[in-house]
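Sample intake sheet
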Amino acid sequence: MSPKDLLRLSKVHCKGSLIKAEMILEKIVKKRPAYSNCDMSQPHIMGVINLTPDSFYKNSRKQDYISVEKTFKKMINFGASIIDIGGESTKPGSQTISVSEEKRRVMRVIERLKEKNSKSLISLDTRNLSTMKIGYENKVDIINDITGFNDKNKINYVSKNKIPIIVMHMQKDPITMQNNPKYSFAPIDIYKFFLKKINELLSMGVDSENIIIDPGIGFGKNKFHNLDILRNLSIFHSLGVPILIGLSRKSLIEELTVDNYRSWGINKKTVCPSKRLCGSIAFAMHAINCGVQVIRTHDVIETKQAMICQRALL
């Protein structure tokens, strides 16, 4: 319905509904402040570098500093605003590694990258407070936590140091998250999670301009949950903070492709991550059309090219 109809019907229902509707509309239309020096009136690309031997997409795995630096510079030159670096695979079924091993994989690399590329924004993908601390000491710009800052000690730390954060939704943990995930209706359940989490963050001193939310496609969601979230992405704007979406080469693309082939009588069993670029781009453009501010991707130049071509048509 139109904003006018929403306000009219809310007024008829009760005064409280009208006030709530007015607040929601205000959050939707208000200008988002800059996030870690990124202008949120424009969509941004977050490039992904995995310092792991077991990430689901083989081509994203980096082990030595030379290849990391080469990929880092390439992503920045091709239009990535932020580079997200992680040392622990969180694909479905992945085993937890020790915090010391995570630090060993990422910290020296991040330290060297920051020495040579001080102005480039680096996001540290970690769920461990001690890794967050040493990352921030090494000038990491953003903390990306798949557990949605589920520990008050983490919240206190990022609040005290005014660190920009990415809050992701995940049901259960990487080992068990795909074991029969359940929702009443995924977009609304996740919306309620973020509403509660944002209020908690604000009450503990985190600045609203330092918060981005990520619905967590594929993290404790099946195919139908993921599609419901993507169809209803726009509802998250009424939370009043920028949105990040990570769809790059995920198994959802494989599931949809295999289903389609089978409907035509073609016995297609798998579509490996290296063959999921086109689906990644299609979903990224959908997210941008829904007003999502940050696209997290392994494929910076291809995603940037799609954004450029789409923008030329406006």
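Comment: The longest strand covers residues 44-50. The two ends are 24 Å apart (CA to CA).
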